[in-house]
Amino acid sequence: MDRRGVLITGAVLGAAVTVRPAPAWAAESPGTAVPDAHLAAARTLFAAGAYGWLGRLLQLLLDGAEHEVRTGPAGAARAAGVWVLASQLAVKQGRIGAAGGYAGLAGAAARRSGDPLVLAAAARAAATPLRRTGRTAEALALLEEARAHLTAGPRPTVAALDAAGMAALTAAYTAAQAHRPSAAREFADEADQTALRLACHRNAGGRPLTLSAGQCTLYRIGIHRLLGDIDTALAYARRLEAEILPTAERRARAATDTARALLDAGDAAGAFAQLRLVELAAPGEACRPSVRALTAEVAAVRPGLAGLEAYVRRTAPAVNAPAG
Length: 324
Known about the structure:
Elements: H1 3-14, H2 36-48, H3 51-68, H4 73-92, H5 96-113, H6 116-132, H7 136-150, H8 158-177, H9 181-198, E1 203-204, E2 207-208, H10 213-226, H11 230-239, H12 248-264, H13 268-281, H14 283-286, H15 289-301, H16 308-314
Antiparallel strand pairs: 1-2
C-alpha cells in the first residue's frame, strides 16, 4: 500500500467513520491521479468534521488535481471536486484568501468538465469567499448561472433539482448577508418548494440527497438572524430536529447558528448550551476560528458560566493540533 492509501485508510478510521474492511482502492497506486474513492473519502472526512485529517489528505490530492484537470472532462470534474473541498476547508480555517483561490480553480475546472452538477458545487464554494469580501453580486451571479444550467431542460433530474435547491439556499444566505430581505426570502421559498418536490426521492442516482426540509430549516436560522429577525430565527431553531440532519458537520452548523441567534437575543447561557452541542457533534467545528470567537463573546457576557472555562481550554488551537 502506498503512502496515500495508508493515509486515506487511517484518516477515515481515525474520524470514526465506518468503512468496509480492506477497500480495494486502498491498495491502488494512483500516481498523480485522483481516484473517485479517494475523493469520496475526503468528502466523508469533511462531513464528519475531521478537518485535521482532511487537511493532510488534501495535501496529496491537490497535486493530483493539477494533473487531472488536463486529462479531459472527467478529470476536470474530479479536480474541481478536490478544489471545492480545499476551498471549504479553508473557509472552516478562516483562510478566506485561500478559499477564494481554490474556488477560482474549482470554477475553471467545472466549466472544463461541462457538468452542471460540478459547476453548481463550484459556485456554492465560491459564494462564501465572495460574500465575505463584499462581492455579493458576483456570488449571486455565479449561483444564478449554476441554477440556470441545472434547470435548463424540460424535466430536470433528481440530482439537478437537489443541486439547484442547495444553490438557492446558498443564494438566500448570500442575499441575507447583503441585507436584501426580499431576495433572501424568495430564494429560501424556492428551496422549500424544491425540497417538497424531492421529498419522495431518497437518492439521486445512488447518491443521497442533500436538500431536505431539515436543511431548509437550518438555513432559515442563519438567514433570519442576518436579516435581524431574531424571533423568527429562533422559531426555526426550535422547529429543527437536528438529529435528522445527515452529517456531523451539518448538526454542528445548526448548533452554531442557534448559538449566534441566542446570543443576539441576550441568552448567553443558552448560547453556551448550543456550543456544547457543537463540540458533541464535531469537535473540529468547536475549534474553528469563528466558533472560538463566538465562544469568546459568550465568555465576555457571562464569564462565570459553569464549564465555560474548561470549554475554552479544550477548544483552544494549541490543545487541538491536527491529528497525526
